[in-house]
């Protein structure tokens, strides 16, 4: 039985990387001033941030269920089953839409995995699924492992500016104004479902310390046994902030020398359009 792995561009996996890995990546639609683009096909990271910084109206959308169904049909000409890993249902309706499609038109052929991942933790899920495919695991075994471990990850994100949270309606104008005047940098968290507030700081250095302390707390409590077994990994993400992300990665490696740090990726555009450029993020997640 041959199993194919499908994900979307929220994983941070580019189309060229997908070809190298032997997987399929569905490009996420991005709307800029009402015009639809597709991540990494007709829209680059550079253009996205140029438009965002120029105050263009930017939003993200779901991929067409029809187009995804067509992709699945094409893949099933060569493969017996598909494991499709989309972004968390807590952050988008995409997962629910595709789950319905799989359960009605592709029953027992396609498994849509709602394992509450996004960006660098989502990429880790894809890498894990590929390892299981190479070991000869069935699609059902891959599905079960990914679902059984879905809450075994954490992401912490420093937002550099409150401007985009305000634009997205996540802050009142008054709170955004006060926060901007005080130069507050919120640290957000994703613990499987929603993007929530974690802490407030005023300096990038303080934000990085806060995030590393949060990761350390998770590793000493929720993930202590997994860490001892060598099953936890680290990753760094950013929004148009690669040089600072590399520095942050080195700091994480120094703080957690026993953990591998595998990825330094741009954050998903679905998250980036809400938090804007200059953000830094770190994550820890289980690895297969």
Structure characterization notes:
- The longest helix has 17 residues, at 204-220.
- The radius of gyration is 19 Å and the shape is globular.
- With 288 residues, the protein is of the alpha/beta class.
- The protein has a 6-stranded mixed beta sheet with strand order 10-9-8-13-11-12, with helices on both faces. A 4-stranded parallel beta sheet has the order 2-1-6-7, sandwiched between helices. Strands 4-3-5 form a 3-stranded antiparallel beta sheet, covered by helices on one side.
- A hairpin with a 2-residue loop joins strand 3 (29-32) and strand 4.
- The chain starts with a strand and ends with a strand.
- It has 12 helices and 13 strands.
Can you give the helix content as a percent range?
Answer: 40-55%
Q: Assign the structural class, choosing from mainly alpha, mainly beta, alpha/beta, alpha+beta, or little secondary structure.
A: alpha/beta
Principal-axis shape equals globular
Query: Could you give the count of β-strands?
Result: 13
Radius of gyration: 19 Å
Strand percentage, roughly? 15-25%
Distance from first to last alpha carbon: 21 Å
Query: Mind summarizing the main beta sheet?
Result: 6 strands, mixed
Biggest sheet: strands side by side, in what order?
10-9-8-13-11-12
Order of SSEs, N→C? EHEEEHEHEHEHHEHHEEHHEHEHE
Q: Work out the helix count.
A: 12
What value does the average pLDDT take?
90
Low-confidence stretches: 169-182
Write the layout of secondary structure elements.
Layout: E1 3-8, H1 15-21, E2 24-26, E3 29-32, E4 35-38, H2 45-53, E5 58-60, H3 65-75, E6 81-85, H4 94-105, E7 110-112, H5 119-134, H6 139-148, E8 153-158, H7 163-167, H8 173-181, E9 185-190, E10 195-201, H9 204-220, H10 224-228, E11 232-238, H11 242-255, E12 260-266, H12 269-275, E13 280-286
Parallel strand pairs: 1-2, 1-6, 6-7, 11-12
Antiparallel strand pairs: 3-4, 3-5, 8-9, 8-13, 9-10, 11-13
């Amino acid at each position: 039985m041959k199993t194919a792995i499908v994900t979307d561009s929220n994983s941070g996996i580019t189309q060229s990387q997908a070809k190298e890995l032997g997987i399929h990546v569905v490009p996420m639609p991005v709307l800029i001033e009402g015009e639809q683009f597709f991540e990494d096909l007709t829209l680059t990271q550079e253009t996205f941030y140029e438009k965002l910084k120029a105050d263009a109206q930017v939003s993200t959308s779901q991929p067409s269920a029809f187009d995804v169904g067509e992709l699945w049909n094409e893949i099933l000409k060569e493969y017996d089953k598909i494991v499709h890993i989309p972004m968390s249902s807590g952050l988008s309706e995409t997962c629910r839409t595709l789950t319905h499609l799989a359960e009605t038109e592709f029953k027992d052929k396609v498994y849509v995995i709602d394992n509450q991942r996004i960006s660098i933790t989502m990429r880790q899920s894809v890498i894990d699924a590929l390892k299981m495919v190479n070991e000869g695991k069935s699609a059902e075994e891959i599905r079960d492992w990914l679902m059984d471990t879905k809450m075994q990850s954490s992401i912490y994100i420093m937002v550099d500016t409150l401007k985009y949270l305000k634009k997205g309606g996540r802050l009142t104008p008054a709170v955004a104004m006060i926060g901007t005047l005080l130069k507050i940098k919120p640290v957000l968290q994703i613990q499987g479902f929603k993007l929530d507030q974690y802490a407030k700081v005023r300096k990038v250095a303080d934000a990085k310390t806060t995030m590393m302390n949060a990761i350390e707390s998770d590793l000493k409590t929720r993930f202590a046994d997994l860490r001892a077994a060598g099953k936890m990994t680290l990753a760094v993400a950013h929004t148009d902030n690669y040089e600072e992300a590399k520095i942050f990665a080195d700091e994480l490696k120094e703080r957690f020398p026993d953990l591998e740090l595998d990825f330094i990726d741009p954050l998903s555009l679905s998250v980036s359009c809400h938090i804007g450029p200059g953000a830094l993020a770190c994550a820890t997640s289980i690895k297969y």
